[in-house]
Design goal:
binds tetrahydrodeoxyuridine; 5 strands; alpha+beta; 5-stranded mixed β-sheet; Cytidine Deaminase, domain 2; 133 residues
Length: 133
Amino acid sequence: MVEDRMIREIKAIAKQASKKAYCPYSKFPVGAAVLTKEGKVFSGCNVENASFGLTICAERNAIFGAIAQGHKDIIAVVIFTQTEKPAAPCGACRQVISEFNPRAEIYSFCISEDFLHYNLRDLLPNSFTSDFL
Ligand code: THU
């Protein structure tokens, strides 16, 4: 389990990231921040495209940033949406998180006090892994 104080700090980073979202089509800004085993935090936002299918989610941008900086041990993923209700991560992002930690802690926050806390193993049971290759 990650300390509450730490999660609150990472929530603030995810919230800041959501302000950078490029989402002119959905108008649904998302920010994400991942915590690694070394205590580093990497953030990302959703980036949309006129060719809609090329859109990338905030979670994947944050994870790919962490990997690109040499940090693969992801402990937790924190999501922030500028909504009244927290939003769970999409299926594609669940699969990408699972590549690096099938037991990652997932937190979803929003502008209200409402939040969600999951373990990825409950959000993506029996996932596709390298064992099948
Ligand atoms: N989005 C995310 O960034 N993360 C998710 O887990 C779900 C959806 C983005 C993609 C798109 O830019 C917008 O939210 C609406 O789907």
